[in-house]
Amino acid sequence: MNYIDSNLKVVGTRPIRPDGVDKVTGRAVFAADTRVSGMLWGKILRSPHAHARILSIDTSKAEKLHGVHAVVTAKDFPDIANEEAFVGEGPMNFRDLSYNVIARAKALYEGHAVAAVAATTQAIADEALALIDIKYEVLPFVIDVEEAMADNAPILHDDMFTGGVTPKPTKPSNIAKVLTFKKGDAEAGFKDAEVIVEGKYTTKPVHQGYIEPHACLATYAADGQITIHSSSQGHFMVRAYTAKLLGIDIANIRCTPAEIGGGFGGKTLIYLEPVAVALSRKSGKSVKMQMTREEVFRGSGPTSGAAIEIKIGAKKDGTIVAAREVLKFQAGAFAGSPIGPGCMCGFALYDLPNIEVIGYDVVSNRPKVAAYRAPGAPITSFAVESALDELAEKLGMDPLTLREKNAAKNGSKTHYGVTHANIGFEQVLAAVKTHPHWKSAVPAGQARGLACGFWFNIGGESSASVHVNEDGSVSAATGSPDIGGSRASMGMMVAEVLGVPVSRVRTTVADTASIGFTFLTGGSRVTFATGMAVTQAAEKVVDELKKRAAMIWEIPADAVEWKDGMAFPAGSNAGAFEPLDLTAIAAKAGRTGGPINAEVSVNAQGAGAGFGAHICDVSVDRETGHVTIERYTAVQDVGKAIHPSYVEGQIQGGAVQGIGWALNEEYIYNDKGQLENPGFLDYRCPVASDIPMIEAVLVEVPNPRHPFGARGVGEVPIVPPMAAIGNAIRRATGVEMHNLPMSPPKVRAALDAAGK
Questions:
Q1: Per-residue confidence at 216, pLDDT binned at 50, 70, 90?
Q2: Whole-Å CA distances, 632 to 401, 451, 641
Q3: Helix 273-283 vs helix 94-101: angle between axes, to the nearest 10 degrees?
Q4: β-strand 52-58 against 133-138: which pairing, if any?
Q5: Domains in the chain: ranges and CATH
Q6: Computed over its alpha carbons, how large is the radius of gyration of the chain?
Q7: Which residues partner with 455 through β-bridges?
Q8: Does pTM top 0.85 for this prediction?
Q9: How far apart are CA 347 and CA 357, in angstroms?
C-alpha cells in the first residue's frame, strides 16, 4: 500500500528516541560491556613492519606462561579459496579477508595481525604477546597510490594481475583492476568546448572515527555451537564471514548485535570475531577481545586516499559538453577500494552528453580500506565540484547557475547506465537559491563556497516481524543494527499502519537465530528496505486483525475495515457493532485462532537516489593558514523524513565528518611505513569548537517505490563538504586548494607559493 498522499499521524513527527534514556544514563550495553563467567582476554600481536616476509613464528614461550590458555597463528585457520565475498558493503575476496584477519606468508602493513593469545587477564595476554618470537625478512614497501602503480614498485601480491584490461597481463602488478565508464564521445566533446578547465587533486586516507573501538565476545561450546556478541553494522555479515573463514556451518553460529557506538561503514568488515572464535575453540572458554584506539587506526580500515585527474569542457553559455576523470584509489593491502562508486558518483548529478571515467583499484602497504559513508563519492566529488567552481569563475557565471543549467533531471541517463527517475536535484538547487544563507551578502572578511553531492542509495535483503502482544501493545523485530535511529523509524511506520500511538510499539534488533537474513546496515538502505519489510509485516497484521474482528462479530472478513487503530463494520450492511480496538482483539486472540503476528522478507529494489547541496562561509587567517567555518547550510532531498530530527542529525553528522576530512584529517606515515598519528590527539577530528551550527534543510520529493516515500539520507551529506570548503577558501584567498587536507600548514604553504 502507498501512504505517500495519506493524512499521516505518526510518520513525519518527532517522538522521543526509544534508546535515548539508556544511552544518556549509561545503561546501554555495548560490545565492550559484555562479560561472562570464566572468560579469557584475547590480544593480537601485530607486525611492526610495513612489508615483511614471515620466516618463522615461535609461540612456545607464550604457551608456557601461566595464565595463557591458547595461542593461534595462521596455521589455526583453513586455507580459503580465491572467491568473491558476499554480504559486505564493499568489494571483498574471502581469501583476502582471511589473510587480513591474520597474516599468512607476509605481513602487508604495519599493524597486520600475525598471532593472538587468550589469557586470564589482559596483562598476562600482553606479556604473552611479548614472548612470541617472530623472524621477519623486511621487504621494500610502498605507501603512495601513484608510486604503487609505477613499474618499479614493490609488488605486494605475486598472483595479482590487473583485471579489466586487454590483453590480460602476464606480469603481476599492484593495480588490481581498471574500470571504464563512457557516455558519448568525450574527445569530440572537448573539440566543441569553448572553455576548458583541468587539474589534479589528491585526498588522503581518513578514518571513520567511530568513538567505540571494535569489540566482541565469542564462545565455542563443547557441542560446536558458537555465540558471538560484537559491535558491527551487520550481525549476519559477522556470521557469514566468520563461518567462511573458519570452515564452520552458518547454522552453528548465533550472532547477537550489541549497541553500536558508531560505524559509518567502518564496521562492515570483521577483524576480531574469527580470531576470538579460534581462541575459544582452542581454549574451551569464552574469549573477549577489544581493540585499543591505536589498534583501530593501525589495524582497521580507513577509506581510500586518491589521486584524481579531471578535465571539463563547456560552451561560453555554461553548457558542459565534455568531461573526463581518471581516479586512482588506494585499496590498502588487499584489493577492493570503492573505485566503482567513485567512478559512478562524480558526474551523476549532471546531464552531460560526453563523459569518460577511468578508475584504478591499487594496493599498497596500508591497512585494507573499509567503507566510509558514501564510499568513493566524497573523493570524486571533491575533484568534480572544485573543477566546476573554477569553471564557473572562468565563465564569469554564478556557481549555482552553472549547476542549474546542467542539472540531472528525471529521464537523464548517467554514464554508468542508469536513467534517473523521481529525483529531486532541481528542487534542491531551487531550495538553495531561495535560502536566506545563499541570498544574503557575504560578510566582510569571509568567502562563500557551494558544492553538490550524490549517492545512488541501495535496497537489498531485509526481514522484519510484527507481533501483537496479549495486552494489545506491539513488538516489532528487524535484522538491521540501529546506527542512525532505525528503531524509531521502524516503530513509527508500524504505528502508522496499525493506527496506534508510537509509544505502544517497541522495536528490537533480533539476533541471527530469531529473524530472517538481513543485509547489513550500510549504503543508506535500512529505512528504505527494512522499512518496506516492517510496513508489509504490519499490513499483514492489519489483515489478520480484520479477520479476527470478523470472527468475533461473525461476519465476513471483507465486511471489516481498519481505521485509526480500530476495526469497524464496513458500512451499515455489515451490521451494527461497537468498534474493536487492538486491545480488545488481542484479548480474544486465543479464541479466534491464536497469536497475531507476521514476518516478511523482501529484496527491496528502487531505493531512489539522493542529492544534496551545501553552502559554506569561511574566513582564513592568512598569517597561520587556519580556516574557520563561519556558517554552514546543508540542503538535501530526503524523500519523506520519517523522523525529521534523526534526518537532520544524519545531515549534520555527515557535514561534520566532511569538514574534518577537508581541514585536518589524514594518515601520516614515516619513512619506515609506520603510522605516526594513531590516536585522536594527533589524528584531529573536529570538535564542537570547530563547528558552527549546521542548518539542515529537508527537501521532500517522495520516492514512489517506498510506501511512505522514503529514500536514504545518511550517505549524501558527507559528499559535498570538501569541495564546498575548498571553493570557499579559493574565493577567500585566490589560491586553488587541490590537495586534502586543507590544514593550516598546507594553506599557509599554498599562500607562500602563490606569493600571497
A1: very high
A2: 20, 12, 21
A3: 60
A4: antiparallel
A5: 20-27+459-604 (3.30.365.10), 34-139+211-262+267-299 (3.90.1170.50), 306-456+608-753 (3.30.365.10)
A6: 27
A7: 610
A8: yes
A9: 9
